[in-house]
Amino acid sequence: MKSYSIAVVGAGAVGLSAALAFARDGFETVLIGGLDARRDGRTVALLNGSVQFLRALGVWPSLVSEAAPLETMRIIDDTGSLFRPPPVSFSSREIDLDAFGWNIENATLVERLAGAARSFDHLTILPQHATGFQASEDRGVLTLADGSEIEVNLAVAADGRNSRLRQIAGIEAQTWSYPQTALTAILAHDREHRETSTEFHTRNGPFTLVPLPGRRSSLVWVMSPKQAERLSKLDDEALALVIERQAQSLMGAMRIVGPRGVVPMTGLSVNRYGAPRLALVGEAAHVFPPIGAQGLNLGFRDVASLRDAVVDAFDDGRDPGTPETVRQYQRSRDLDVRLRTAAVDGLNRTLLTGLLPADLLRGAGLLALGKVGFLRRAVMREGVLPHMGAPRLMQDAAGA
């Protein structure tokens, strides 16, 4: 039976980054999962902390030419509310950043991470699925689809919202859904986006255009399931015209230039982030609707926090999978994830309610952000990366 220090199960962006992070620090690591990336029209806005993390892993130079900087974020109330605040813009320069983050196609990100993984020292790739896991006091044993087994100090579950390892460990997950669906697409447009992300708050949810390189943007349009079904049946030309009208022609004429997707709006949270010899990261631990660029960024923060706990254990002479390592990881993630879950859920529900008190509260908040400089800057800093308790690889590109 082969033995490894760390096993990462799941080869999406979060799983790949976890495997790279542990191998980078010299831990003998195995990545279990197939390296494939399907293009589905989805992009991810990598906030500043995630960029620092990818830079520390040595991957960012291969990504930067494929990504567009997000220098300005603009919010426009399009709910038709009686209390309608003026548009609010946030500039990264106000918090001394060149950009809040960078927007890139998810498939491109996975491809570059997979390319790095194939040539990393201390990293073995097994293109299989894990079907079982057992933990003892001193080791964990993973069973693979071909019946073989491997011993590990710590298994990292990065196997998504339907995580098999989470289920085996008996970790409860709370799930919920929204009466909404997100339509995603890649667009070309006649006017420059000027590195500005624009989010229209509509009564059915946000309509967001995020820059891509050139005169292109990615779209996340949250709407009712019936509307999503109707629009998804339109041809590219007709859909582009509907999108242009919803965007109030800010970008001029639009064309669909990439894959389209339809994503049901759901959420998931867990009551704990680990079990003996096991830690959950990414969507195995939390699922967000595609609002506020929180999902993958939180997943990367999971990985960087778990990496800190493992390194601290090694420095103290403990192996990576001890209960104290898992407890340290739990403490580092619990409050951060809960607060952001509540924030995204709360914003989305205030858009849906249509009640005047909720509109007043949301509108007053946007008005305050537009008028009160120190408040606006504090919110921007917290949104990009909370400094209190930030993982070390997100503080300094050189790592720690």
UniProtKB/TrEMBL annotation:
Pathway: Cofactor biosynthesis; ubiquinone biosynthesis
Domain FAD-binding: 5-308
Cofactor: FAD
Molecular function via GO: FAD binding; monooxygenase activity; oxidoreductase activity, acting on paired donors, with incorporation or reduction of molecular oxygen
Keywords, comma-separated and alphabetical: FAD, Flavoprotein, Monooxygenase, Oxidoreductase, Signal
Source species, domain of life: Bacteria
Family annotation (InterPro entries): FAD-bd, FAD/NAD-bd_sf, UbiH/COQ6, UbiH/COQ6_monooxygenase
Leader sequence segment: 1-23
Family listed: Belongs to the UbiH/COQ6 family.
Stated name of the protein: UbiH/UbiF family hydroxylase
Record organism: Microvirga makkahensis
